[in-house]
Amino acid sequence: MKYLTTIGLETHVQLKTATKMFCSCSLKFGEEPNTNICPVCLGYPGALPLANREAIKLTVLSGLMLGCTINKHSTFDRKNYFYPDMAKDYQITQNTHPLCLGGGVTIQTPNGPKLIRINHIHLEEDAAKINHYGQFSGVDYNRGGTPLMEIVSEPDLSSQDEAMAYLQALKQILVYTGVSDCNLEEGNMRSDVNVSIRPEGQTTLGTKVEIKNMNTFKGIYAAATYEIARQTYALTHGKVLVQETRRWDPDANETQSMRSKENAHDYRYFPEPDLVPIALSDEQIAEWRSSLPELPSARRIRMMEEYGIPEYDAGVLADARENADFFEATARLCDKQLGKIVSNWFMVEVMRLLSETGKAIGACALTPAALAELVTLADQRVINGPTAKELLPELFEKGGMPKTLVEARGLGQVSDTTALEAFVQQAIASNPKSVEDYKAGKKAAAGYFVGQVMKLSKGKADPKLVGELVARALEQ
Is 0.90 topped by the overall pTM? Predict the structure, then answer.
């Protein structure tokens, strides 16, 4: 019997704010345990929370980017549970009136684009972090109270590959918007993975199993793969699946049962009495909407049309917002027909320097104006390609403008035919054996003479013109 897979994701994203959700404690990563804490985030009696306005704004921005409807009247609730990572024994979250409703993320599948719907996005505080040390465990409350946005998808994903595509697209959109770094290693983005299977032809979903708190894409893929196989084996052999929460053990490469799945009534949700409702006006939402960047998918299409670059180039450039911004700023300073050339320079030469130095484009000294001038000088044959490539690392590291460097160092390309012909004759006269090789049919010898002329001109000759002169001289 064939079984169909259904996956839904609950993705928790730490928002990029300076302070916690309901207090003024710092959110600097990597501090000594339990140093960024206060009576509010520790839940001391009498300490009252105050909602972080920036966290609300970032959640609304995320919802707008994802096509959600923004709830102008939103409230906080208490989710009650007893666990060491929650000092108050309850979590302030949103249950009945979340900030964002609906929306979705479009992914690419072998069968074409597919919309993965979003049920809602709500805002809450993160729990503390429990560290295990062999014989004992410790709780670090520095993370407790971090603004946490939870994006709940509908069960629209039908495979682990679609889950990866959704998460990668979601991460790109959130990073583009600037709401989170989505750094999985720092725990900025974590997902609960809900997996169920059902026989083909059955319309009702199968028994849902939740895999809790996955913080790597590789782990999510492996856990979903294992869980699909486990559930398929169980149903094939007549076993009954139970709704439960499981954990992923990467060492054993398997999911393991933690507890039976809680329902909403188990948490005894009730309205948070210490926080007033969030009231958003149409004017406020419109103002925030006006600050949104272009969606990465829309930007790829536009860059292909505007700059005449292929789909692959547009995909690479649009992958990181600051790279795309730099490319577009450069291309707009060049002649329109140079879009593909600018793309090549950025993707090959600039990205190589970024990789070698470990820098982001915003941290290097190269400016769009300098790169545009360098590309233009090479295109107009004021300098040749090798000279341009030699100048780029200096511009990247120290800044400046290429035209100034070219003039100061006399790096202008030699295109004077009389001067180049003299170099060609000198090279031919000095290498009679290579001339014989060429005349004997070894046409590659022509490349040797081009190299010799480039040396004689100290790298400043026009390679294309040199090639033409060498070919002409050797045929005489």
Answer: no
